[in-house]
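note to self — DONT lose this again. spent like an hour looking for the file last time. sequence + predicted structure for the chain T wanted, 456 res
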Amino acid sequence: MAAPGSTASTPPVPSHVPVAHALRRPAGDETAVLRRVVSMCGHLSALAAQNTELADVVTFLADGVGAGVVVLDRRLDELARAGLPGGDDLVGGVREQAGVAGLRTVLAAAARTRRALTVPGSAAAGAATVVAPVSVGDDVSGYLLTASHAGSDLTEDMRLLVTEHAAMVCGVVLGRELVVTAAAGRARQELVEGLLLVRDRDDPEVERWAQHLGFEPGRGYCAVAVSLAGDRAATAFPAVETALGRLAPEAIVAARADEIVAIVPATAGGAPGRGVAPGPLATARAVAAGCVAAMSGRAGASVPIAVGVGNPCDTAAEIARSYAEARHALAASEKLGEFGGVTAFADLGIHRLLLRVPDVTDLRDFAEEVVGALLAEERTGGMEYLATLSAYFEHNNSPRRAAEKLHVHPNTVSYRIRRIEEITGLSLDVRRDRLMAEVAVEILDALGDRSGGGRR
């Protein structure tokens, strides 16, 4: 890495090259070359004031300097190139030229000094490469590299001057793109928020908002809400967004204050030989399960994750309803002390009503009033009355089918049902009593408050 005019193998990082020094006597017509350099810098300044793209800047620079030009971001991914055949690897060449110092050292020096540096060429190649930092505000967002072709009439100092000026223009262009991207991101976030929280479903603007985000009416979508717990929840949000983007590339994904929301479309088309594609709910379940698996499999990052899935919606106006259902499903897993995994609103059944009760204690008190005596009998006698009652209701009051599930004789189920009626004072042939008993059992199932057991 050498400063202009220096031949030492590892010289100190050069300071800014003054214009007077840069414009020393060149070979050939001095006046013409100087005029060209001044004209190039003026044209580059004009580009900075226009709606210019990086491709315009590097193309102009490559033509004017007679050099291959590449713009890299901070990760050394290529953003734009000009004056180089498609297969030419300018970065690889600089790595070889940098030698012991290494490319990272060269880039770090350019970033630290905010000045262009020259990396001398090899004896075989002869051409040197100029590396200039591309700054956006106080940050170095990338690097501009120029490698001169043989026979260029510009001196090394002139190339330093022009490359540094071009890097400044690239910084202006990147800064403008960042502003536009940020503004677009904010606008997109506001559109998503409008869809999730819309109250007037007849508002014609809703459909237009959704179409801007890629929503296709009639395709079928489900809202998926992802919640994370623990101290590392905030830092894991980007990983969730990445997982959702991979699992559902066409989903509308947005990060909110305490969750990630995805509006997941049904899989388009069917797989050859496998019939029709799964519907929106099946697709959303699969995406939710994949997201949980992806987060669970992250090395050294155990962050509890829960996902709620709303029912399908076909219009943009229904997205808010599906999202509210996904939130209810999330609340179900949290309220019932089972945070984690995937909970679909469609699977909640009567729980979707029970969970609207503000205080879970009220639910527990109701269940205690209805089947509290049965719980006490289980604790003292060990008979599985609640399990029998649940199986009996599940199989439409059939002692035979309930017995098959419990692996007992049907007469045993009939006996237990008679005992349940005696203990609770309920008559399961009476609709009101049967409904109260079913709700009580559902509450205990949801709250995990069953007790007793031991023998059948």
